[in-house]
Automatic annotation (TrEMBL):
InterPro entries: ATP_PFK, ATP_PFK_prok-type, Phosphofructokinase_CS, Phosphofructokinase_dom, Phosphofructokinase_III, PKF_sf. This is ATP-dependent 6-phosphofructokinase. The active site is at 142 (proton acceptor). Catalyzes the phosphorylation of D-fructose 6-phosphate to fructose 1,6-bisphosphate by ATP, the first committing step of glycolysis. Its main location: cytoplasm. Pathway: Carbohydrate degradation; glycolysis; D-glyceraldehyde 3-phosphate and glycerone phosphate from D-glucose: step 3/4. NCBIfam families: PRK03202.1 (NF002872). HAMAP family: Phosphofructokinase_III (MF_01976). One of its GO terms (molecular function) is identical protein binding. SUPFAM superfamilies: Phosphofructokinase. The gene is pfkA. PANTHER family: ATP-DEPENDENT 6-PHOSPHOFRUCTOKINASE 3 (PTHR13697:SF52), PHOSPHOFRUCTOKINASE (PTHR13697). Residues 11-314 form the Phosphofructokinase domain.
Length: 365
């Protein structure tokens, strides 16, 4: 079969930041058309930007990207390292020049970077400082990447969190307790809000709405008065009480950030305070990295594949320095300069917030 013309002759893929379900599906989605439709050479870079600096390139063949659609994690490995400030021995150094030299030596025409908010910034920096083109694909269970309706990994994590909340319901009713369940999401509440609504949580606490303990306690007591003798609290890891807001950081970052000098972990503070205010026994569950593990959902496999093949096409067309966004059910390129450094948090007027409020869910305010 003849190959279609391609501007990029050699591309390199890396996965950066926290892993999530769907990374391998994207790698496969990029590599298959790149190899077979466009005849490109496809390289993998191991362990994110660190591997780029340490020259850890591997050649990706059809055999290596076959059978990985359903696999969690990333076959390339990942790290949170950034080229601009990388720990080398005892010190942090700017390794951007080394990264550029390695890419030039391998004759890479475009680096395809799979990652979240930090990766958008790192990829932009790499292109600006080395002139080597990049394309990014938005990954994260947090769903907080700007300019895309959704990130891959989010749907799977939301499904896992919802299942956990379902399971907590049966034990909560049996013991008539308050069950507080902490859910990842960094400074954004998408995962907790989505899973909280889908899992029927009675209280949902997200960073975008700093809460009042009195308000939550009142809603829990009201449930008791109505004969409901248990309650499920879905708590985002980045949530905070109204008097725990760090106003300096909040102003700097443009999203609500809590004080980090508090002695007792968030989930324990919430459970203890609610028990004190309501006299109802409570228990805590932190879902943590379970949310990032396992096989991607059908929705994530579909999204990852579409995003991957779009990135391959953009490489072939030479449409570089963009992020593959998903908007109105289509993959579309958006300039990386418009994404990097921004965060997508839950707007106060989002339909999910309205749905939660209208079904009587307490949002802590
Ligand atoms: O960004 C994904 C995420 O899982 C966040 O929800 C969480 O705050 C963070 O990564 C945890 O990172 P690490 O695995 O480095 O502890």
């Amino acid at each position: 079969m003849g190959k279609e013309a391609s501007k990029a002759k050699c591309i390199a893929l890396l996965t950066s930041g926290g892993d999530c379900p769907g990374l391998n599906a994207v790698i496969r989605g990029v590599a298959k058309p790149a190899l077979h439709k466009y005849g490109m050479k496809v390289l993998g870079i191991q362990n994110g930007f660190r591997g780029l600096v340490e020259n850890k390139f591997i050649t990706l063949t059809d055999a290596q990207v076959s059978g990985i659609l359903t696999k969690g994690g990333t076959i390339l490995g990942t790290s949170r390292d950034k080229p601009k400030k990388m720990k080398m021995g005892e010190q942090f150094l700017d390794m951007t020049r080394v990264a550029g030299e390695n890419l030039q030596r391998m004759q890479v025409d475009c680096v395809v970077c799979l990652g979240g908010g930090g990766t958008q910034k790192n990829a932009l920096h790499l292109w600006k400082k080395t002139g080597i083109p990049v394309i990014t694909i938005p990954k994260t269970i947090d769903n907080d990447v700007y300019h895309t309706d959704i990130t891959f990994g989010f749907d799977t994590a939301m499904t896992t969190a919802t299942e956990a909340l379902d399971r907590l319901h049966t034990t909560a009713t049996s013991h008539q307790r308050i069950m507080v369940c902490e859910i990842m999401g960094h400074n954004a509440g998408w995962l907790t809000l989505g899973a909280g609504i889908a899992g029927g949580a009675d209280v949902i606490l997200i960073p975008e709405i700093p809460y009042s303990y009195e308000c939550i306690a009142e809603s829990l007591k009201e449930r008791r008065r109505m004969g409901k003798n248990f309650s499920i609290v879905a708590l985002a890891e980045g949530a905070m009480a109204q008097d725990e807001v760090d106003w300096e950081k909040t102003e700097k970052k443009g999203v609500f950030v809590g004080k980090d000098s508090l002695d007792i972990p968030l989930i324990n503070r919430v459970a203890q305070n609610l028990t004190e205010l309501t006299n109802i026994e409570s228990r805590v569950t932190t879902l943590g990295h379970i949310l990032r593990g396992g096989t991607p959902s059908a929705t994530d496999r579909l999204l990852s594949t579409q995003m991957g093949v779009t990135a391959a096409r953009l490489c072939a067309e030479g449409q570089y320095n963009v992020m593959v966004a998903y908007k109105n059910s289509h993959c579309t390129p958006v300039p990386l300069t418009e994404v990097a450094g921004k965060k997508k948090v839950v707007p106060q007027t989002h339909p999910w917030i309205t749905a939660a409020r209208m079904t009587g869910t307490c949002l802590g305010d």
